[in-house]
């Protein structure tokens, strides 16, 4: 059996295990890379090359900075201040809540953002006797779309850039995602403030389930230090080429400063790193490389192109890959879905002679459009119980929003990244 077929076999098994999560996602990813090494498709050095990838370092640094934001109380303080100013008006509360969630999710963990703001929202709804369900659904939606604004906002974004780099192409820039992320976030806010909130159940807060107020930070000085570090890191990343400091270096310096200044302890820094994402990413990069060099990606590309015709419209390719990525991410890890599809998308684009950038961007954005099931993404799961949602509530709210997101992508992506 040639290398391409062996790679496809490993890919198929990995896809099944990703979807079912019979074994942990990180174990599946690293297991796929090791299997390709044992089968002779990858060299021993290539099997573990993902662990030394600069993007893994970037991940680690930003996880630590994000953890410091929540450990010092900076994120909580920002969230409470913005949300409480909205008063008792349901729409004003939702608008303020979504805005701050989008901002926080663009530079830190969307899961941590939801976990931080959820008790605040529940308390406000309980005091004002407002339905809590629409607010919590809006919180989850904002966390998902907010992550699409920057490269570090969500793992699929970083993965898209790294996959382009692994294929010999120029990666996306730090704020390049904002061209689609900001319009998508605005569309998500408008949708939830109009149609979406009407599709949500109108459940009031269960008094027994009300969580306590978020704790105030013990040391305001540390909040200021953390804010300065975060701003400095983001500015350094934006000016990466001008100051000649790689983004991963800026992220690690920021993480180290958070520990050295006491914003969080060494143990808290380790705990703040999402190791599942780290190893999932490190395992999928060698698989992406094997897809490229073994010819497996080209085989899939030829098959897909054959299904949609000899001269498919580039827009059709973008729409199809968006639908596939979005469909997969409703039931499996969005990082895993994006990792599976990115190298395939590059092969498809190159096989029909168009730029891979719009196709890859569509996959990355679609992976964050995880709106239609409670298991699609951690923010959705977090609000399930407190919001008293049923599975079909996610479907009712999420399906129209997926179509809104697709339209935004089909309009904006070709304008920013021409075929």
UniProtKB/TrEMBL annotation:
Q: Which UniProt keywords apply?
A: Membrane, Repeat, Transmembrane, Transmembrane helix, Transport
Q: Which residues cross the membrane?
A: 29-48, 55-74, 94-124, 136-154, 174-193, 223-239, 245-265, 272-291, 303-324, 336-353, 359-376, 397-417
Q: Name one Pfam family in it.
A: CitMHS
Cellular component terms per the entry's GO annotation: plasma membrane
Instruction: Tell me the compartments it is located in.
Output: Membrane
- Molecular-function GO term, any one: transmembrane transporter activity
| Signal peptide boundaries | none
What's the main place this protein lives? Answer: membrane
Membrane topology according to the record: Multi-pass membrane protein
Query: Citrate transporter-like domain location, by residue?
Result: 16-353
Q: Which InterPro entries match?
A: Cit_transptr-like_dom, DASS-Related_Transporters, Na/sul_symport_CS, SLC13A/DASS
Sorted alphabetically, which NCBIfam families does this protein's record hold?
A: dass
The identity of this protein, by name, is: SLC13/DASS family transporter
């Amino acid at each position: 059996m040639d290398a391409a077929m062996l790679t496809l076999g490993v890919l198929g098994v990995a896809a099944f295990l990703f979807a079912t999560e019979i074994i942990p996602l990180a174990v599946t990813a690293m297991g796929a890379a090791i299997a390709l090494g044992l089968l002779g498709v990858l060299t021993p050095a290539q099997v573990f090359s993902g662990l030394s990838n600069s993007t893994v370092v970037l991940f680690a640094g930003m996880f630590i900075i994000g953890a410091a934001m929540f450990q010092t109380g900076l994120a909580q303080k920002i969230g409470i201040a913005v949300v409480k100013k909205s008063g008792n008006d349901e729409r004003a509360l939702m608008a303020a809540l979504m805005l701050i969630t989008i901002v926080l999710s663009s530079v830190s963990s969307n899961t941590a953002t939801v976990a931080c703001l959820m008790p605040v929202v529940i308390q406000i709804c309980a005091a004002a006797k407002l339905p809590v369900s629409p607010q919590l659904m809006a919180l989850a939606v904002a966390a998902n779309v907010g992550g699409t604004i920057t490269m570090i906002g969500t793992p699929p974004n970083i993965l898209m850039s790294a996959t382009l780099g692994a294929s010999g192409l120029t990666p996306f820039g730090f704020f390049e995602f904002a061209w689609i992320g900001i319009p998508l976030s605005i569309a998500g806010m408008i949708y939830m403030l109009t149609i979406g909130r009407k599709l949500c159940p109108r459940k009031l807060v269960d008094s027994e389930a009300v969580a306590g107020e978020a704790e105030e930070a013990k040391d305001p000085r540390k909040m200021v230090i953390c804010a300065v570090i975060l701003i400095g890191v983001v500015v350094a990343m934006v000016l990466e080429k001008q100051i000649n400091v790689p983004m991963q270096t800026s992220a690690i310096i920021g993480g180290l400063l958070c520990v050295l200044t006491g914003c969080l302890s060494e143990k808290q820094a380790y705990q703040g790193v999402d190791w599942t994402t780290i190893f999932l990413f490190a395992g999928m990069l060698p698989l992406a490389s094997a897809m490229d060099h073994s010819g497996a990606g080209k085989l899939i590309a030829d098959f897909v192109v054959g299904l949609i015709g000899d001269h498919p419209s580039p827009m059709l390719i973008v729409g199809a890959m968006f639908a596939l990525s979005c469909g997969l991410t409703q039931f499996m890890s969005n990082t895993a879905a994006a990792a599976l599809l990115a190298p395939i998308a590059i092969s498809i684009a190159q096989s029909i002679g168009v730029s891979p950038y719009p196709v890859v961007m569509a996959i990355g954005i679609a992976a964050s459009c995880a709106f239609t099931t409670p298991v699609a993404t951690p923010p959705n799961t977090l609000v399930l119980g407190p919001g008293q949602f049923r599975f079909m509530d996610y479907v009712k709210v999420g399906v129209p929003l997926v179509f809104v997101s697709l339209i935004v992508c089909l309009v904006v992506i070709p304008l920013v990244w021409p075929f």
